[in-house]
Write a structure and sequence with these properties.
eight-stranded antiparallel β-sheet; single chain; about 50% strand
Length: about 250
């Protein structure tokens, strides 16, 4: 929060095709299943998204739960702190997991826990098995060279398999490197900047972005990025994949 003597200004921009939202602009709210947590709604159908993304600050010694739901799946990624997920995963920065429908997602904070959560309605598909629960840590996921550029590295957290209808990836770009083209595609994105800063091209606008910014990108929003500053950029992003287009 800025001192009250400072001028009020912001890099925030919300359009029908994209939204750039620095974290300072999000007021906290409460979720029924996380009564002791400060919860921030980053994206929802109210902005045009087909998913909901939260940032949740869970105080040490408290817990929160999304009850089992027959249709909704939940992805989690730990930004800071320690805790437990469903008594099966020790949570620390970089830990992630996917809770499939019909399973509850319970998070318990041992120290103050900051966690990203994304919820999406699961889309079953014929001739493929349904998605299965997934647990992992970003440090254990291989960084692969992307677009033949060793300064552009991609980590695929959710397997690229037809059972899954979402992708959660981490891009790491060295300063001065980024996406070599302006992409335009049917998938939408929810994107959280983990570190660094740079310039994002969004529907013809170049927007400065940095750590703890969130970007929502609608389907077919022209987009590109390159990293600036002295340290590499790293961001976590969602996209919907592997399904037919409903008509």
């Amino acid at each position: 929060m800025r001192p009250i003597t400072d001028l009020v200004h912001s890099r925030t921009r919300v359009t029908p095709h994209y939204a750039v939202m620095p974290f300072e602009g999000f007021p906290p709210s409460r979720l029924p299943g996380f009564p002791n947590a400060e919860s921030y709604v980053l994206a929802s159908p109210a902005i045009g998204a087909d998913f909901v993304q939260f940032l949740i600050d869970l105080p040490a010694g408290s817990a929160g739960t999304f009850p089992a739901d027959s249709e909704l799946q939940t992805f989690h990624y730990v930004l800071d702190g320690t805790g437990q997920y469903n008594n099966t995963q020790s949570l620390k920065p970089g830990a992630f997991g996917l809770t499939t429908p019909a399973n509850a997602c319970k998070l318990e904070a041992e120290t103050n826990l900051r966690i990203l959560l994304l919820r999406k309605r699961y889309e079953p598909t014929a001739n493929h098995p349904d998605a299965t629960p997934l647990l992992g840590h970003a440090d254990d996921v291989e960084q692969t060279v992307w677009a033949d550029n060793p300064d552009s590295l991609l980590q695929t957290l959710v397997p690229d398999d037809p059972a899954f209808d979402l992708a959660m990836n981490i891009f790491t770009f060295s300063p001065g490197h980024g996406l070599p083209i302006v992409e335009t595609h049917v998938m939408e994105h929810g994107l959280w900047f983990l570190q660094g800063k740079g310039l994002y091209h969004l529907a013809g606008d170049w927007m400065e972005v940095e750590q703890n910014d969130f970007i929502w990108m609608a389907p077919f929003c022209p987009q590109s990025y390159y990293a600036t500053g002295p340290t590499p950029t790293k961001y976590l992003y969602y996209k919907n994949v592997n399904r037919d287009i409903p008509l």
